[in-house]
Amino acid sequence: ELERTFVMVKPDGVQRGLVGEIISRFERRGLKIAAMKMLVVSDELAKQHYAEHASKPFFPGLVGFIKSGPVVAMVVEGKNVVPLVRSMLGATNPANSNPGTIRGDFALDTGRNVIHASDSPESAKREISLYFNTSEIATYSRID
Ligand code: CMP
Fold it and tell me: Mutate which of 41, 50, 58 to test ligand 1's pocket (most atoms within 8 Å of Cβ)?
């Protein structure tokens, strides 16, 4: 069953030159990049993306950070991709992100944590539609 998730290398990850490393990890795992773009997130898009956190004390900082420089947004596909990619990211809290995960290898701060990925198939659908038109998402021919 084909599944998709939304992944974004955050401004700190782009600025630190981690885009290639991160894409490599997904490719080596056998996942497919179905869409990808670099952009600077607008204020409106940032607030829509993080709408579920609007009431949190860290919301203004989160929105300010995500707009602070270019990001790389991707649609990644593969079997069980939502939980699989979350496991490859590691925990949001750096105290709990294991070595071998992207955050466990590259992040030390809850806010500046290099990468975002959808936490459920419903979130994935919503987040993909915020960043991509259907015409921007490629279809791979496949034998599986
Ligand atoms: P992300 O996976 O992009 O989704 C929500 C983000 O909120 C999360 O990564 C963190 O970067 C951020 N976040 C969560 N908790 C806190 C916090 N206590 N302080 C600052 N940022 C937070």
Answer: 58
